[in-house]
Amino acid sequence: MKKQLCIIFLCIMIITFIAGMAGCSPKRGNPEDEDLSPASSISLSEEEARQISDKVPINLYFANEDYTKLKLEIRYITISEAKKSVNHLAEIIVNELIKGPKVKELRSAIPPETKLNSKIEIDGDVAIVDFNSEFRDKHPEDKAKEKMTIYSIVNSLTELKEIDKVQFLIEGEKVKEFKGNFRFNNAFPRTTSIISMDTPSIETIKTQEESEEEKDREDKDKEKDRERDDKDGDKREKDEKDKDRKDAEDSDYIMEEEDVFSDTIDEDVFFEIIEGEEF
Predict the structure, then answer these.
(1) CA distances from 2 to 5, 8, 16, 194 (A)
(2) Which of 23, 92, 178, 179 is the least crowded, having the fewest Cβ atoms under 10 Å away?
C-alpha cells in the first residue's frame, strides 16, 4: 500500500513540475524573457553574431512586393533601449516601420511623411497610436495597401506581450474610416492569416552613439578622399604646367631651327645666283 501511495505521489509531483515549466514560457515578443537566439533556419556570420550579442530582437512586418502578405524583418536594438519602457519600445517599432524595410523585396505602404503626434500610450492591452494627418492624406487609395499598412503596424506592435490591440488616432481624434475601405474607429486585433512564413531577414538598429561613431568614420573617410583628390589635383596641375612649359620650349626650339634653315637656304640660293652670273 505504501509503495502504491509513493508512486501516486511521485506522479503528481512530475505532473505539477511539467505544468509549472509550461506556465513559465514567455509570451511572444518579450525582449527581456524570451530566447534571443535567431530561428534555426537563419544562419549568421561571426561578425553578425557579434553585433547582436548585446541586443534584443524586435519583429517588424512589411508588405511583400504585390501587397498580398506581410513578411517578417527582424531588427536588433540594445538591451538598454528595450528596457526603458513598453511605450518607448512601441515607439521604436512604429518609427522603424515608417522608415521602411531594409530588404529590397519588401514594401511599406506607410507614407514617409507620417509622424507620431505624441508618445504611444498603453491602455490595458490596447496601444493608442496618434499619427499626423499625412498618415491618411498621403496614403494611396488602394485597398490592398491600406490593409497592409494597418496590419503591419498592428501585427508588429502586438508582438509585445503587453499589447493585444491597436487603436489609431489621427491628430488626436478617432476617425470613422481610413481611406474608405476599413472602419478605423475601433481597436484592431492581431491578424496572423496575412503573415508569410518565409525566412525573415535580420538587421541591426544602431544606437545614437553607434550612429555618431559611424558618421565620424564616414566624415574621416570623406576628408581623406578630399585630401587625396586635392593632391591628385595639385599633381595634375603641376603636370599640366610642366607639359605647357615643355611644349613652349619645344616650340621655341623649332622656331630657331626654322630660322637657321631659312638662313641656310637663303645663303645657298645666294651662292647659286652668284655662280650662275657671268662677269
Answers:
(1) 5, 10, 21, 57
(2) 23
Q: Please say if the pLDDT value at position 42 is more than 50.
A: no
Instruction: Give the bridge partners for 130, in sequence order.
Output: 169
Which range has the worst mean pLDDT, 120-134, 165-179, 184-198, 250-264?
250-264
Write the DSSP string, 1-64: -HHHHHHHHHHHHHHHHHHHHHHTSPPTT-TTTS--SPPTT----HHHHHHTTTEEEEEEEEE-
- For the segment 56-65, the average pLDDT, to the nearest whole number, is 93
- What is the DSSP code string of 174-232? --SBSSSSSB-SSPEEP--TTB--SPPEEEEPPPHHHHHHHHHHHHHHHHHHHHHHHHH
The predicted model scores a pTM of 0.58
**Structure confidence by residue, pLDDT tens digits, 178-188:** 887 888 999 99
Is residue 163 a contact partner of residue 133, using CB atoms and an 8 Å limit? Answer: no
What's the CA dihedral at 168, 172, 177, 180 to 10 degrees? -100
Asked if 145 and 178 count as a contact pair (C-beta separation under 8 A), the reply is: no
> Hunting for cell 505521489 — which residue is that?
9
What span, in angstroms and rounded, lies between the C-alpha atoms of 1 and 6?
9
Higher pLDDT: 135 or 220? It is 135
